[in-house]
Amino acid sequence: MAGKTWQIVLAGTGGQGLILGGVTLAKAAVLEGKNAVQTQTYGIQSRGGYSQSEVVISEEDVYFPKCDRPDLVLALSQQGYERYRTIVADECIILYDQDVVKNTKRSHDVGYPFSTRVMDIGNVKAINSLFLGSVLKLCPVVSIESLTKVLEDSLPAKILAINLKALNIGYEEIG
Asked: Is residue 132 within 8 Å of 24, Cβ to Cβ?
């Protein structure tokens, strides 16, 4: 019997932590004994240009490192949403920042106010932990405990608590 493979795209603007989010998700998968590949695309600007991270996680070997049939797309910008809304399968979930993405076309997409909530949390740099919690709730590819462990092992103590708070808020408030 073939093992399950998940494909997740994190799309938005440079500086939103999309690449770090993809790396963190891949590390959590490896921690659970799964195979993971993370690739990234970004413009010449380090902040403000289009950016995306693709993560393929599988219980078997990964032979193709790109997301050709995503299970979930996170769109933190209008450009990220527009890029995927017409090419993903109907069953693909598009999770979008409802503060930024307007004129959504698919009735089953999921909006969440990422930009507002991260300001409420108190640190805009915690947006990647916030969106990872939401991604996990909608596409439980790894456990929240594994993701928490990766954050604990990766982040300095001075920002760990706020990132764990953001992770849990994102997880609890979606769906």
From this structure: yes
